[in-house]
């Protein structure tokens, strides 16, 4: 990470985005573009840090705003060194309970908005042959549970998109890190959570029960956003930053258990898997 690194962070009004913006700006050698749909919610960050901070309006689903925000950031600071695609939210519904308009809004923000911002920032990074793209996924991008299927689908998409991006930009001097938090004390399971108005009784004991359990975690999540922010800064500043960065004990425990389950399933069905190829003599 260069001296006087310029960070561009989406979704800074609350939660991890806000904590990360604060942590970056606590370092006098760093600068930050802090964005939110309502710029008034991040104006205090710009006021407190003078010419090291720029607060901008940004709804990641608005292409014109994306282009304008990136342009203004580059005009103000000359470049963007670290892009953090953090804007996103959750949605509770069994798959069958999903509402079409809500599902499309979710993908517009969590996937298409992230991709749009990334595409807007990449030309500058390519020109300089340096940069770091940080995409905020979730433990839910590695493992899925009932009631959050559509949210998982967005995060699985972010994982695949980011892994492909990493392969494409590595020869250009650009790094990619996928951040995978477990439950952190943010608004995700509270004010920012959306949920389907549809309730189907047959899912009461599965998706329905998990809806209630998820909402009940609000304000009691074990993850500390400030510590998560420091972990992200540490990873970005590393000589060899990870492609994936798990955050929180639950993320580590569940992700490693997931690896074990996948290995067991793959090994159990190995012979059936291998038998699907043409016989060697037909290759």
Automatic annotation (TrEMBL):
Gene3D superfamilies (alphabetical): NAD(P)-binding Rossmann-like Domain
SUPFAM superfamilies named among the record's database cross-references: NAD(P)-binding Rossmann-fold domains
Keywords, alphabetical: Oxidoreductase
Top-rank taxon, per record: Bacteria
Pfam families: adh_short
Keyword Hydrolase recorded: no
Statement: the UniProt record of this protein carries the keyword Oxidoreductase: yes
Protein family (similarity comment): Belongs to the short-chain dehydrogenases/reductases (SDR) family.
Full protein name: Short-chain dehydrogenase/reductase
Gene source species: Amycolatopsis bullii
């Amino acid at each position: 990470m260069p001296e006087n690194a310029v960070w561009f962070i989406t979704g800074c009004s609350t939660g991890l985005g806000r904590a990360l913006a604060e942590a970056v700006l606590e370092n006098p050698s760093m600068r930050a573009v802090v964005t939110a749909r309502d710029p008034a919610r991040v104006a205090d960050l710009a006021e407190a840090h003078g010419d090291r901070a720029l607060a901008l309006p940004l709804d990641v689903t608005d292409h014109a705003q994306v282009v304008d925000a990136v342009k203004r950031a580059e005009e103000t600071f000359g470049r963007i060194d670290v892009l953090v695609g953090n804007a996103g939210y959750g949605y509770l519904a069994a798959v069958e309970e999903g509402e079409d308009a809500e599902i499309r809004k979710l993908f517009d923000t969590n996937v298409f908005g992230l991709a749009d911002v990334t595409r807007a920032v990449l030309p500058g990074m390519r020109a300089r042959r340096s940069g770091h793209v940080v995409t905020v996924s979730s433990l839910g991008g590695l493992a899925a549970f009932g009631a959050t299927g559509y949210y998982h689908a967005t995060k699985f998409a972010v994982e695949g998109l980011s892994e492909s991006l990493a392969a494409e930009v590595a020869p250009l001097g650009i790094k990619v890190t996928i951040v995978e938090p477990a439950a952190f004390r943010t608004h995700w399971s509270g004010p920012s959570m959306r949920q389907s108005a549809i309730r189907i009784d047959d899912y009461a004991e599965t998706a329905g029960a998990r809806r209630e359990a998820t909402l009940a975690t609000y304000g009691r999540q074990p993850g500390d956003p400030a510590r998560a922010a420091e972990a992200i800064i540490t990873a970005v500043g590393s000589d060899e930053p990870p492609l994936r960065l798990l955050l929180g004990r639950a993320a580590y425990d569940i992700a490693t258990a997931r690896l074990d389950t996948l290995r067991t399933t793959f090994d159990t069905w190995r012979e059936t898997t291998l038998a699907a190829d043409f016989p060697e003599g037909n290759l």
